[in-house]
Each structure stands twice: as structure tokens, then as C-alpha cells.
Specification:
Layout: H1 3-24, H2 35-54, H3 64-85
Helix pairs in contact: 1-2, 1-3, 2-3
């Protein structure tokens, strides 16, 4: 399995996890960092681990297009899950 597919799966999990935390833990909504930063930090952590694991060898880094798609998927899930649950959240 390529690193791009692993990243997309990770983005799905990270977005769903952020959305579920926003629904299940009401106090998390008023945390100092806005929820979309949680996704950015998770993606940055994944990229850092992937880069240092392979030492930046060609073919082992995440493609730019995949980064944008993964970020979009994660943010969409983070917004959709609370919306489906009927929770009002201030994202920005």
C-alpha cells in the first residue's frame, strides 16, 4: 500500500475522531486551539513521522495533491459529524 493511500485513511480517521470529540466532549469546543487546528496538527504529525521514517527518500513522501485531498476529507468529516448530530459549533 502506498504512503498516499495510508495518508488518506489516516485523514479519514483523524477527521472522524475530531468530529466525534466535538460531539461527545462539549468542553472541547471551547479549547484554545480551534478544531481545524487539531486536523492540521494530526496531518503534520503524520507527515513528520513518514518523512523521518524514510529520511525523505523519493517515492516515500506524500504528494501535494494527496495532502490537499486528505485535508479536505478530514475537515469535511470534522464538520459533517457534528452537523449530523445536531451540535452547534464555532469552527473559526
Amino acid at each position: 500500500m502506498s504512503i498516499d493511500r495510508i495518508f488518506l485513511i489516516f485523514a479519514l480517521v483523524a477527521g472522524a475522531a475530531c468530529g466525534l470529540v466535538l460531539v461527545e466532549v462539549p468542553a472541547a469546543r471551547e479549547f484554545r486551539l480551534p478544531p481545524y487546528f487539531w486536523v492540521i496538527l494530526a496531518i503534520a504529525a503524520f507527515e513528520g513521522v513518514a518523512y523521518f521514517r524514510s529520511r525523505g527518500a523519493p517515492g516515500t513522501v506524500i504528494a501535494v495533491e494527496t495532502r490537499f485531498i486528505g485535508f479536505g476529507i478530514a475537515i469535511a468529516l470534522m464538520i459533517a459529524i457534528p452537523a449530523i448530530a445536531g451540535v452547534q459549533i464555532r469552527y473559526f
